[in-house]
Design a protein that fits this description.
Elements lengths: L2 E8 L15 H5 L6 H9 L9 E8 L9 H13 L5 E5 L8 H8 L4 E5 L5 H8 L4 H14 L3 E8 L7 H12 L4 E6 L4 H5 L1 H4 L3 H17 L4 E4 L17 H7 L1 E4 L3 E4 L1 H8 L3 H4 L11 H8 L2 H15 L1
Parallel strand pairs: 1-2, 1-8, 2-3, 3-4, 4-5, 5-6, 6-7
Antiparallel strand pairs: 8-9
The structure holds iron/sulfur cluster (SF4).
């Protein structure tokens, strides 16, 4: 099976939302950092080439809100050209969807991208827009998902385990089923408590154990509908029947991945390495550490490790019994 490496390309820091759970801080969004066209050309040229038949590179373009970069179309054209030359194999876009609610713009950019990742906070418009601090962002996001699907782009919807909406995960899953059938992929992710998400953790943080029944119910609803799902959550907390939805080989992907950003240019994907790979002692000694992917570090800084120690012990006891 081919292995892939992600090239995380963070092209700017400005955004048209002010999400309470943004992994950047408000100060860094205000810096208005961005990569220039020349920098992107040079950095894309410096991506290590794939020299065997066993690997492939996926570029994931993010920001801020990447589509607000004044040269966004040129940037995705550069990536498309790298794809044509065989240096990249897939182009994914991480967007809040607001600009792509415009059908003409969505159609323009869709010819250069393969996949899009959009985070849906809630399906109640008022609750959703509380997260983004932008009235109308729910309506725009839904329109963007419709537009991308119409343009033939693979849509990945990310749902977050986060206090204001974790109990609504099953309802959100029902909404997705009814609206898009199984035409979208859905990932349920633990929250990365960095940037504003960390600053606002007093309103966002929820214990994994409290979220478990809602995550499992949401997964049931999506799986029944034959939707492709993945879950980034501690496996010792989930029932073992859901372990199969934790992506295999994710550790290798992150280990091999690169990050490109205005501040740090090109380097290892340090934040993800810290969150997913450099694990605490409790996890490092666990039989499932290679299979278990979730942003543990900041979570354990907020709560401590006791919840995971207990969940791991219970998991081992259940296996033995
Ligand atoms: S102890 Fe850590 S690695 Fe093991 S299942 Fe729990 S969270 Fe995952």
């Amino acid at each position: 099976m081919k292995k892939f490496r992600k090239i995380y390309i963070n092209i700017n820091s400005i955004c048209n939302c002010k999400c309470v759970n943004c992994i950047l801080s408000e100060d860094s969004r205000k810096m208005h950092d961005e990569l220039s066209i020349d920098e992107i050309n040079n950095l894309v040229d410096s991506i290590p080439q794939i020299t065997d038949n066993q690997h492939y590179n996926i570029a994931e373009v993010s920001g801020g809100e990447p589509t607000l970069h004044k040269h966004f179309i040129e940037i995705v054209k550069i990536l498309q050209s790298a794809k044509t030359k065989g240096h990249l194999h897939k182009i994914a876009l991480l967007t809040n969807g607001l600009t792509a609610s415009n059908k003409a713009f969505c159609s323009d950019i869709s010819q250069y991208i393969d996949d899009v990742v959009i985070t849906l906070y809630d399906t109640n418009p008022i609750n959703h827009d509380w997260f983004t601090n932008v009235s109308g962002s729910f309506v725009d996001k839904i329109a963007a998902i419709d537009n991308f699907l119409e343009c033939g782009v693979n849509v990945h919807i990310k749902l977050l385990v986060i206090r204001p909406s974790y109990q609504r995960l099953p309802e959100i899953a029902e909404f997705i089923n009814q609206k898009w059938g199984n035409k979208v992929h859905v990932a349920i992710n633990g929250t990365h408590y960095t940037g504003d998400a960390h600053r606002n953790n007093d309103v966002l943080f929820i214990k994994n154990q409290n979220a478990k029944p809602y995550i499992e119910k949401a997964l049931d609803i999506l799986i029944m509908n034959k939707t492709i799902v993945s879950v980034f959550f501690p496996l010792c907390i989930l029932d073992p029947i859901y372990w199969q939805y934790s992506p295999r080989g994710f550790k290798d992907v992150i280990d091999a991945s690169l990050s490109i950003s205005p501040k740090y240019k090109i380097g290892k994907a340090d934040r993800l390495l810290d969150e997913f790979i450099h694990r605490n002692d409790v996890c490092e000694s666990c039989l499932l550490v290679e299979r278990c992917n979730w942003p543990w570090k900041r979570y354990c800084e907020i709560l401590d490790e006791q919840e995971i120690i207990e969940a791991k012990n219970n998991m081992y006891k259940n296996i033995i019994n």
